[in-house]
Design brief:
The complex is a heterotrimer of chains A (149), B (499) and C (326). Chain A is mostly helical. Chain A has a two-stranded antiparallel sheet with strand order 1-4. Chain B has one domain. In chain B, strands 1-2 form a two-stranded antiparallel ribbon. Chain C is built from 13 helices and ten strands. The N terminus of chain C is likely disordered. Classes of the chains: A mainly alpha (149), B mainly alpha (499), C alpha/beta (326). Chains A and B meet through helix 1, strand 3, helix 2, helix 3 and helix 4 of A and helix 3, helix 8, helix 9, helix 17 and helix 18 of B. Chain B: InterPro entries: DUF112_TM. Chain B: This is Tripartite tricarboxylate transporter permease.
């Protein structure tokens, strides 16, 4: 916990909201707005985005004004390992099949912590992969290839 | 007396040996798929549909209905143990249920969830038998105008879900509303915020967002903590709820059941409203609302009861009017037609044995679920003894497969990855995702119904107050808003902000 | 040994569950399981038809036929998956082909060419539409409805199952040809539209018979007419559009099976023959009739011509009415 001059929690939330609102306003710039009694498709997105913009500015301002503790430092290992695990599953599931994708996803996820032992992880990954194939493909009929096709 | 004759006739159908067997098969399958994140009852029922062609109509319906409410039981198990909500309704159970698990009270939470569900299921069965005709009239009274007002009420209630700052909750509801607007606009057919991605045209699926923000975000945050301070304390204090637990939970169950029974009847409002509004109600009524979000047992009992009651009374429009309340009911209609039975309002008089058999089987099935689930509580809880280093990769894998399974689309897996990142970000900055999820579910319906109401009323805003049901609901909204803005609340809000 | 095959051996040894990998033996023409893609969520007419036909097709070709729901973008997502599959007849598409006929006019950014990337195999069924009104509308026949609409322009609101969907386009075309005006109110699907008219939120509906006819039979809605060539058995007193002098008598649900464009004609012919055989089974005919439908087998050429014709006709209506997709 680091002491900081600004309230990072509020500031980051505020900036996040401003960014989302701005992106929405850009993405919906070509939609018809209409008016409250006869809304076009662009009406609701813009009203909500403007409200979010208001909240965003409020939190950003409050974050800058108030003295508070910052956020706990980000640890990259768990974050990247979990995201990579999901990403690898998405990349391989339909191409290499569920069996291989499952092993890859479990192995990568295990890298999130240093506690794992390689032999145990490999064995567990293979076990889970087999269980997933049996459960989801054989029993529940999920239309996903088991092997590369 | 006709009622008891009907129920007796139903029971005699439901208790036939083969129907009992199919009811059991249904609830067991339902529990299993409910426990698995992502795999919902709809694909399962679709998969089993051809198999039901060979059964009698009553057996087929009893089994399919069993899958439906069995899945509601199973879903809360995953929500409580690993904080992964597989469907809209389990999001609420995550909030306090998983918190209880962290405190070593997973067994109590699971048991109370099962008991609340059984209680609600029993009452809802009676409600269906006694009140289905008057309640179906209510369902028809709800047009776009009334839905809009009800949804506004739901969104206001959402602010109560989180236990931090009101302003942050409001911002999260709005963020959810915005996410809900992605996709093709129902009223004009125009694509919004899809960035040219075809997979976005039907909007964002709920499950990848919920699993990413709740399940995966939580896992990442957990792994940052030293091993001994992680999630669920592995010493499990008690499996069986104590008397004090029951005393706290019982009134919540009663209120949840009432709320769920009424809201469940409204087609379209769907699975989201009963548990969310029950949670909001319990928190409003509690003497010490600050306990909520930190493992309050009422926050599990009320929503679980509301959810199960709603799931059952959602059969009322189907049985009395032939109107399917949700996608699953539409699927059941398909199953009926395959049996050569024309579903519709006449079904109650033409097929009384079938209708009352299904109704009675719901009670039988709920009893089976209780008997199956209570002994299983110990087994589920012992699952938490699996070392976390093995448990979390398994959860990640099941989330991936489950998300893929909703629409057989890899896009959803990518979406879940993005939401995991955002969920982690939210945890870091101390914002809770529950209000966002409610906004996401209710937002599109809010806009759709508002625009439809305006189209039909030629842009006349007074329809919202000139129609009585809508006027009453909006009155409640006004009172709630006033209460939230009253000095006392402003003070607690300040305290919350200052903490 | 390549990596995938190595992994296959390792995993197979651990699982020791044999027959997980598909075996190569089987019918000459079909070497692996066939995917039957339904581009809608489970429970709709297309899905139920697919699950009805798949076991029969599987028995006929000696390979398993797996039904896959790929919903999204009014059916375009699933159709795209079939359009981009290997052109060998192992990936089939079963859907309301009306959506395929309207897609080119509705969506400027369609990711596939309906004519080139999809090969028609056979039509499967036609499902008639029902025209019905809420009881508050004083019309007992199509003619009375038209008179009422002419006397009260823009007072009627007609529910449809989605912007740009077949029921919407039918309603727009009818209004134009009859010289009447009504409000088109879009809903999410036929069931929601039916509910809205039963409750009186909207007051006219043209919609598929399975979702709407029960309300007519039970007198919650006043039925006026049905599309198609014959009257419907469960509501014999409703005239057909043709008998009532209404335009648009061939509007309805048209379910058909297609495969990837560029599939060898011999393969298309084999699939066509197998599916026509299945459609002749009394059991299948009866199940389709219970869905309120009529079996319509066609040759690939007939189907192709139907699709071409519908695309032009509906495209004109969509352009003239200014209906937009994305």
């Amino acid at each position: 916990m680091t002491r900081s001059r600004i309230d990072l929690q509020d500031l980051l939330f505020g900036l996040f909201l401003v960014a989302v609102a701005a992106a929405t306003l850009v993405a919906t710039r070509n939609l018809t707005v209409g008016h409250a009694a006869d809304m076009g498709p662009g009406y609701m997105p813009r009203v909500v985005a403007l409200a979010l913009m208001g909240f965003g500015i409020f939190f950003t301002g409050r974050g800058l004004w108030r003295m508070r503790v910052g956020i706990a430092p980000v640890q990259w290992r768990p974050l990247l390992a979990i995201l990579a695990s999901v990403g690898v599953f998405a990349l391989t599931a339909e191409r290499l099949g569920l069996a291989i994708a499952s092993v890859a996803a479990v192995m990568l996820a295990s890298f999130a912590t240093r506690e794992g032992r390689l032999v145990e992880t490999v064995a567990f990954a293979l076990l889970l992969s087999g269980a997933a194939v049996l459960l989801f493909v054989k029993l529940l009929g999920l239309p996903i290839p088991i092997w590369p096709r | 007396m006709e009622l008891f004759n009907n129920l007796l006739m139903g029971l005699s159908t439901a208790l036939e040996l083969n129907n009992l067997v199919f009811c059991l098969i249904g609830v067991v399958i339902g529990t299993a798929i409910g426990v698995l994140p992502g795999i919902g009852p709809i694909p399962t029922v679709a998969l089993l549909l051809p198999f039901t062609f060979g059964l009698s109509p009553a057996s087929a319906m009893i089994m399919l209905a069993g899958i439906f409410y069995g899945a509601q039981y199973g879903g809360s198990t995953t929500a409580i143990l690993v904080n992964v909500p597989g469907e809209t309704s389990s999001v609420v159970t995550c909030i306090d249920g998983h918190e209880m698990a962290k405190q070593g009270r997973a067994g109590t939470a699971l048991a109370i969830a099962a008991i609340a569900s059984f209680f609600a299921g029993t009452i809802a069965t009676i409600v269906i038998a006694v009140l289905s005709v008057p309640l179906s009239v209510l369902a028809l009274k709800f047009t776009a105008v009334e839905y809009f007002s009800l949804l506004v009420l739901g969104l206001i209630a959402a602010v109560v879900l989180a236990h931090g700052s009101v302003a942050k909750s409001l911002a999260m509801v709005l963020l959810g509303l915005l996410l809900g607007l992605v996709g093709i606009d129902v009223s004009s057919g125009v694509a919004r915020m899809t960035f040219g991605i075809a997979a976005l045209s039907d909007g964002l699926d709920f499950v990848p967002i919920a699993m990413g923000m709740f399940g995966l975000g939580e896992i990442i945050a957990n792994l940052e903590r030293p091993a001994e301070r992680r999630v669920v304390s592995q010493s499990i204090r008690s499996l069986i709820p104590r008397r004090a637990d029951f005393r706290a939970a019982f009134p919540a169950m009663v209120r949840g059941t009432t709320l769920g029974s009424v809201l469940g009847v409204l087609p379209g409002g769907g699975a989201a409203l009963p548990p969310f509004s029950s949670y909001a109600l319990e928190k409003k009524l509690a003497r010490d609302p600050s306990r909520f979000g930190k493992g309050a047992i009422e926050g599990v009992a009320g929503p679980e009861a509301a959810n199960n009651a709603g799931a059952q009374t959602s059969f009322i429009p189907l049985l009395t009017l032939g109107i399917p309340a949700n996608a699953l009911m539409a699927l059941m209609i398909g199953a009926l037609m395959m049996q050569g039975i024309q579903p519709g309002p006449q079904i109650m008089t033409e097929q009384p044995k079938l209708v009352w058999g299904v109704i009675a089987s719901m009670w039988v099935g709920n009893l089976m679920l209780l008997v199956i689930n209570l002994p299983l509580v110990g087994l589920w809880v012992s699952m938490l003894k699996i070392p976390y280093r093995l448990l979390f990769p398994a959860i990640v894998l099941f989330c991936c497969i489950g998300t893929y399974g909703i629409a057989n689309s890899l896009f959803n897996v990518w979406l879940m990855m993005g939401c995991a990142m955002i969920g982690y970000f939210f945890i870091k900055i101390g914002v809770e995702p529950a209000p966002l999820l409610l906004g996401l579910v209710l937002g599109p319906q809010l806009e759709e119904n508002f625009r439809r109401a305006m189209l039909l009323a030629d842009g006349d805003f007074t329809v919202f107050v000139s129609r009585p049901i809508s006027a009453v609901i909006l009155g409640v909204v006004a009172v709630l808003l006033l209460a939230m803005l009253s000095p006392e609340i402003v003070r607690t809000r300040k305290e919350a902000l200052a903490e | 040994m390549s990596l995938p095959s190595l992994a296959r051996v390792v995993a197979a040894a651990i699982l020791s569950v044999c027959a997980l990998a598909p075996s190569g033996a089987g019918a000459q023409n079909f070497e692996r399981p066939v995917r039957l893609i339904v581009p809608f969520a489970p429970g709709g007419t297309s899905d139920i038809l697919a699950r009805l036909i798949s076991p029969k097709l599987s028995a006929a070709i000696g390979q398993s036929v797996v039904v896959e729901n790929k919903p999204g973008a009014a059916g375009n997502l699933g159709a795209d998956a079939v359009a981009k599959a290997q052109p060998d007849g192992h990936t089939l598409l079963l859907m309301d082909v009306g959506s395929l006929a309207t897609a080119p006019s509705l969506f400027s950014d369609l990711t596939f060419d309906v004519e080139k990337d999809l090969a028609p195999i056979s039509m499967v069924m036609f499902g008639p539409y029902v025209l019905a009104v809420h009881e508050s509308i004083p019309a007992k026949s199509p003619k009375e409805l038209i008179d009422y609409a002419k006397a009260n322009p823009n007072k009627l609101s007609i529910a449809n199952s989605g912007v740009g969907g077949a029921t919407h386009i039918t309603a727009v075309a009818m209004a134009k040809q009859l010289g009447i005006q009504w409000k088109n109110v879009p809903y999410k699907g036929g069931a929601a539209a039916s509910r809205a008219v039963v409750s009186g939120e909207s007051n006219v509906i043209i919609n598929g018979a399975p979702a709407t006819l029960p309300f007519v039979v039970n007198k919650q809605l006043t039925g006026l007419a049905v599309t198609g060539e014959q009257r419907i058995a469960s509501a014999p007193d409703l005239p057909t559009f043709k008998e009532a002098g209404l335009p648009g008598g061939d509007a309805g649900t048209w379910q058909g099976i297609l495969t990837t464009g560029g599939t060898p004609p011999a393969m298309v012919a084999r699939l066509n023959a197998e599916i026509r055989k299945i459609l002749e089974l009394p059991e299948i005919q009866q199940k389709i009739a219970e869905q309120g439908g009529v079996v319509r087998a066609q040759s690939p050429e007939e189907f192709r011509n139907w699709l071409k014709d519908a695309t032009t006709r509906w495209g004109t209506i969509i352009r003239e009415a200014g209906i937009k997709g994305s």
